[in-house]
Amino acid sequence: MTRHELATAQPSAAVRRDARQKVTGEARYAVDRTPPGCLHACPVPAAVARGRVTAVHADQVLQRPGVHAVLTHENAPRLGDADDPTLALLQEDRVPHRGWFVAVVVADTPENARAAADELRIDYAPGEHDVRLSADHPRLYTPEKANGGHPAVRERGDFDTAFAASPVRIDATYTMGALHNHPMEPHAATAWWDDDGLTVYDSSQGATTVRDILARLFRLPQQKVTVVSAYVGGGFGSKGTPRPPAVLAAMAARHTGRPVRLALPRRDLPATVGHRAPTIQRVRIGAAADGTIAALAHEVVTQTSTVKEFVEQAAVPARTMYTSPHSRTTHRVVALDVPTPSWMRAPGEASGMYALEAAMDELAEAVGVDPVELRLRNEPDTEPDSGKPFSSRGLAACLRDGARRFRWADRDPRPGVRRDGDVLAGTGVAAATYPVLLSSSRASAHAAPDGRFVVRVDATDIGTGARTVLAGIAADALDAPLDSVRVELGSSRLPDAPVAGGSSGTASWGWAVHKACAALRATLAADPGPLPPEGVTVEADTDEEARRTSPYARHAFGAHFAEVRVDTVTGEVRVSRLLGVYAVGRVLNARTARSQFIGGMTMGLGMALTEHSTMDLVFGDFRERDLASYHVPVCADVPDIEAHWVDEHDPHLNPMGSKGIGEIGIVGTAAAIANAVHHACGVRLRDLPLTPDRILPLLTGRAPTP
After folding, report:
1. Mind giving me the DSSP string for 396-448?
2. Average pLDDT, the chain
3. Residue 413 CA, distance from chain mean position
4. Considering just the CA atoms, what is the radius of gyration of the chain in Å?
5. Vertex 688: Cα angle to 686 and 692 (nearest 5)
């Protein structure tokens, strides 16, 4: 094997570079930093769903031992405009929703801060609130854009006429409640001020972005703000934008003149760090007798807050997936007195593809066509919405390979016939898609005289293995051994980089790293003599590349297959087998890729069966606010889970030939499980999650066969 072949092959076998640090405790997270004299802060959430603060009785808790300060809208530092109203904290007396932070208590220990925060008495002038989402809410409106800048409404052809003329018609409404990210590491920050400005250790998916926002909020030059997010214990989108801990810790540190550490209790996360918005989705499909789609409509109703507009783009995937000469995709939203929704793994795609793929399953049953074959029959030649050719479209390969691995051909297509005593069994399939996204990034590559290299980029490793993958990209571009490359990331003092989100991290950071390393390799080749003592450094950015408009529609695709067992006595659904096959360009590291796919599939399992948040209509808050009531899946919930990928060469992406993998694993999983439950029971439930209390009424009268 040549040196270049070795460098190319190494990343696929590379072990995670931060594995030892994490299992030994050497990895330091946001609250693992305790500067001398550090104080501890605890925020106080509003106890009304809407209204105003009329009085804060701070004098009472300031008498408690160890309490140093109570910050409210009356004495907190004044903030500048950061274009994100969710960060305008302690600036006015308005309470836009229950859980909005109205005060911060600062004390010498976390225990004293929490006790004082619990004791702090606040008076309110409450107002009438509205937290109920409905498909006919009188204040529904059509926004200009949905999340990601997508047009809220897109129409092609004449949907109404084509749908009415179709011999087969599906018209179904699917609902999902709110979902919450719940990363293992709570949202937290440690902040202090000195002559150099503001330093914040933050649990964030992007230190560069947090730095920029803090600089605007505190009216500082960017070079006076340092944000470090070296190790982050998960985020799933909730840490993709700056959150209250960094702002409140910095405010408290400025007010007290001492370092301040703030970690949000888990019970505060649902109201303060975003969530996947609940949706009501109507899908209509008009098709020929053989299942060929002529008309497709996906109409979404969702909610946002009165603080900031965020519209879950759930109808957008329907613009990409299937042949649809006549199409209507719309979003309508209502501003309620609820916390502001935000990103959660595969925003838009995860919720939208659940409804679309469940409707495709209903269509397959209506026309008597195998669900895999139905999807293959509706493969488009170009992207339906834009008309652009696909840079590559591996959905058909994923469906065929998945069907082979899953032994789909052995499936009895009749629903409700596989029984083992009180247990019904069934299988289901669903497709998945996720767009290829790219943001501008910067990176530097340094060659030292001892033959070692250092790559610097302000990427954030949120548990995805960014350190490992970026080192592999660098080694490949440098044609150097993998162990000769060290990667520095997670600090705003490094070259600017975008957030770890939208499955765009590797493409964005990796392109800049590849460009810097390729330029360094060329520089070294042009002057093969000994390096100077200080070494040689090359910097690169992808500003020009990120601005280019591609003539291709670029998407990752996948296929999910699920087998379930439904207990007719208890209503419990167990997933006995879960398989995902993906087309994501070149896989740069098999270990980290498989981990990401399986992680996404596990979240999809939770979305289908266990995870939900219910809104208390009287009190105006989410009832499930801890991991005892918000049930995330564990290893025992699926004994057999596999992730595979097909070989896909796509020259229209980036120098690595890679597509994002962090989110596509969740996209079709919930639909595949829901379709499998229908196949098992012979009845269809269109509301997630499929909990026993919802399943049992559908099974009434289905006694075990003698």
Report:
1. HHHHHHHHHHHTGGG---STT-EEETTEEEEEEEEEEEEE------EEEEEE-
2. 95
3. 34
4. 26
5. 100
Q: Which amino acid is at 176?
A: M
Q: How far is CA 292 from the centre of its chain?
A: 33
User: Distance of CA 406 to CAs 305, 409, 424, 642, Å?
Assistant: 43, 8, 19, 10
Strand partners, 575: 564
How many angstroms separate the Cα of 561 from the Cα of each of 42, 353, 592, 703? 45, 14, 21, 28
User: Strands across the sheet with 94-95, in order?
Assistant: 94-95, 51-56, 122-126
Q: Tell which residue, 330, 280, 317, has the closest CA to residue 301.
A: 280
Model confidence at 592, pLDDT cuts 50, 70, 90, reads very high
Q: CA 700, CA 684: separation in Å to the nearest integer?
A: 14
Residue 8 has pLDDT above 70, yes or no: no
Collapsing DSSP states into helix, strand and coil, what is residue 475?
Answer: helix
pLDDT digit string, tens, across residues 137-158: 999 999 999 999 999 999 999 9
> Do residues 259 and 35 lie in contact, with contact meaning Cβ atoms separated by under 8 Å?
yes
Query: Of 185, 357, 624, 663, which residue is the catalytic one?
Result: 663
Three-state DSSP class for 641? strand
Please state, in angstroms and rounded to a whole number, the distance separating the CA atoms of residues 684 and 695.
9
> Both tokens of residue 224?
């006076």
Burial category of 682 from C-beta neighbours within 10 Å (exposed 0-12, middle 13-18, buried 19 and up): middle
Amino acid in the structure at residue 671: A
Tokens of 293: 């789609």
Q: What pLDDT digit, counting tens, does each position of 10-29 carry?
A: 446 688 899 999 999 999 99
pLDDT at 259 over 50: yes
Amino acid (one-letter) located at 263: A
Share of the chain above pLDDT 70, in %: 97
Annotated catalytic residue 539: no
- The structure tokens 């990667």 sit at 487
So what's the pLDDT on residue 701? 54
12 Cβ contact list (under 8 Å, min separation 6): 587, 588, 589, 590
Query: Residue 453 and residue 442: Cα distance in Å, rounded?
Result: 17
Q: Which of 445, 495, 450 is nearest to 474 (CA)?
A: 445
> What is the amino acid identity at position 306?
T
pTM: 0.95
Q: Using CA atoms, how far apart are residues 394 and 560, in angstroms rounded to an integer?
A: 13
**According to the model, what pLDDT value does residue 12 have?**
61
| 73/438 Cα distance (integer angstroms) | 39
| Cis status of the peptide bond prior to 689, with omega within 30 of 0 | yes
- Measured CA to CA, the distance from residue 294 to residue 39 in angstroms comes to 64
pLDDT at residue 702 greater than cutoff 90: no
Predicted confidence at residue 610, as pLDDT, reads 96
- Count of other CB atoms within 10 angstroms of residue 108: 16
- Per-residue pLDDT tens for 383-442? 999 999 999 999 999 999 999 999 999 999 999 999 999 999 999 999 999 999 999 999
End-to-end CA distance of the chain: 64
The answer to whether 48 and 98 have CB atoms below 8 angstroms apart is yes
The per-residue pLDDT for range 562-584, each reduced to its tens digit, is 999 999 999 999 999 999 999 99
Helix, strand, or coil (residue 352): helix
Q: What would the 3-class secondary structure string for 618-655 be?
A: CCCEECCCCCCCCCCCCHHHCCCEEEEECCCCCCCCCC
319-374 pLDDT tens trace: 999 999 999 999 999 999 999 999 999 999 999 999 999 999 999 999 999 999 99
